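FYI - complex with iron/sulfur cluster, inputs then prediction.
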Amino acid sequence: MVAFERLAADARAAWDDPSFSVVRAWKEAAPGRKAVGYFPVYVPLELFHAHGVLPVGVFGGGAGIEIDHANSLVQSFVCSVCRSSLELGLTGRLDVLDAMVFSNICDVARNLSGIFHRNFPRLPVLYLHYPQNPGSSAALAFYRAELARLEGALEALSGRASSEEGLRRSIRLHNERRGLVASLYRLRRERPEAMDTSELYGLLRAGLVLPAEEHLALLRGALEAASARSRRPRDTVRVVLEGSFCEQPPLELLEILEQTGCHVVDDDLLLHERWFDSPVDEDGDPRTALARAYLDRAVVSSVRYHGARRRGEALVEKVRRHGADGVVFCTAKFCEPALLDYARTKEALDRERIPHLAIEFEEKMGVFESVRTQLETFVESILFFAEGADTLRA
Amino acid sequence: MGETYQHQGLGRNLQKQLLGAWYERIARAPETGTKLAYTFVPGNVAELLRVFGFELVFPEINALQSGIKKTSDRLISIAEDCGYSSDVCGYVKTDVGMVVSGGCGPVGLPLPKPDLLLCSFTGCTTFIKWFEALAELHGVPLVMLDVPYIREGESIGPADRAYVVRQLEELIPVCETVTGVRFDPDRLREIVKLSAEAEDLWVDILLSARRRPSPLDAYFEAVFFMAPIYALRGLPECVDYYRFARLEIEERLAHGLGPGPEERLRVVFVGPPPWPHFRAFWELFKKWGVVSVASSYSKVGGFWDEGFRHDPGHPLESIADYCMLCYTNQHLGMRADLLRRYVRRFEADAVVIHSVKSCRSFSMGQADLREAFIKEDGLPTLLVESDLVDPRYFQEAQLRNRIDAFFESLEHRRIVGAAAGPA
Ligand code: SF4
Ligand code: SF4
């Protein structure tokens, strides 16, 4: 068995690299290979896989790149993931991609697709409109047409059509991957000493650049190694992390969460590998199965309309389900979907007397001291003073 | 202008009267038994709703009226106390502030709660969050109308249209249940026809700006002239309004009148105005003899000057197309091309972008547009920043400096260019 630390380090080396070396190496390994980038939050990864195309998550440049060019094209009041993703393109780091996919998660991302289109004439921009009226009888046909449009583009790029059986195989593979991710999440929830949140995050994030099969092997190994890990449990409070579904918080921030005694029992980081709350159907028409899963079984997130289900209620339910003591809202600065949802869901938490803390981050934030102090105070208040929290465990 | 002319001021005054009467009808709806449908301006489906006798309420118009009346800052801080960030859309906060502070509307009359909350996803994702908040605050279910974005390099596809039309058909029984009125396709056709008539007249007014001098400021005046086509479209008084407004414009044309004393520079204006400082903002341009000859914001709800008309022959299909064609539902490349067309058709000298901090639906991409216009088209383009209802972001001195510097150099270039003569 490979040691967990070794696997975690491999994962980090794969994703924490703004030059996308893993993707370059994959493409060079055989002629004609194509890689297609996607902006958060979700894309139907199965379709890429079935066409032999490598899907590559372009989720910003993090703290690792300087922003020199993007600032003149994107105003100051826009989130950093847009700015740094554009910078990746303007500095040639996305030349490894053969196309780029955007979707209707927010107005900023929609318009970023247009900025990409103008600035990178050689990079085809594909745009997906995920149905926001899942209750309409026409949503299925519409979304199937969207998927067909994406498939058409992938086929044209790769020169490879997908068969029904091939697509079913891809669905099975991705179900397996989602299953492993769910097991890793369960393990962290039940035995925080098995794995830090920042480690789990790294394992998932490697899936943005690795081929699905390789990622699956990594996750499988990590699950085994983490289960066997024995570290001393710490005194912690159980928190749900909410609001980081698109722009990624700095790794340091996730580490501080742990250092200050927050045991993250669930989060909305990197949702694309956990997008459905149950497996996609493996029998029947695979395209319909993918579309139905999106409409009926997608997890609650700020970038999707969920019918009459109130966001606050969904969050309270999540807190209860995982026996959490509180919620840490961790929102990207200027991220409108996260900030608007915060205002609504916070009220629901207040009604239920569930403690919560709001912190804001940017990719290139340099100083974490005030966040650390806020978190320490939050944890202490739950541990010692939270008469109101009925899930108190201290 | 007043004394010697017959029709000057008509557009402004009549607009005020019509909107006043509209707000009265809304306030009295609980007494009169009128049902209220709350919905959004861009790509609104007024025609279909009117078949059922709904009076329409547009939270955006309430927010902008609060901006004009300078009550938005108080409402925004009420919403911020409820947890809304200083970085999110000011319209949402103004409206939420209005609701949680007791439901008094912008003109001092009560705003009764909605009977139907129709959230059209027409060009702005914030719409969904906004109406989710209203659904909770009013305890009224939200009805969704999903509208696909028009993608780079494409126009409306058949699958897009079929999707929107089907949702409109699904909306019909919902409206029947809420109002108790049965759907009548003939009535829909009549209403659609009234819309098309008003649209023809409105386009005449907009296109008049091609003349020199332009009889109208197609931004600072058009944003008032446009109100009836959004709030009252489909009603006979809307058609009447544009008939009268056109008289005013025709009179200006006949006498060579413009919106100001002289027209020195013609610009295409992009973005919504800073409502709480509307006059002060206009003054910054008037001083340079700047006249807007076309603007994107006056078309925020629909693009009739580009040929679209509601069509009594295909009412639902044309309503669906109207939804999809609104400005912010078009990808950036289409927006850029439209503005370029405006520059050519209206013989503009420059483009002015008012970039609104809290409205990313409009503003994200505007810096890129500016760069494209300057570098690809050699088109002088000015970008200034503030907000549409949040007065905290209106820095007058800073704006003046930028605006003065831009027009000074533009004038200078013109003088130098004229002196050099044609090559
Ligand atoms: S971080 Fe928020 S605002 Fe920025 S692209 Fe993502 S969802 Fe949109
Ligand atoms: S973000 Fe802009 S378009 Fe959207 S609701 Fe706010 S003001 Fe309107």
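Residues 388-394 of chain A have pLDDT under 50 and may be disordered. Chain A touches chain B through 54 residues (CB under 8 Å).
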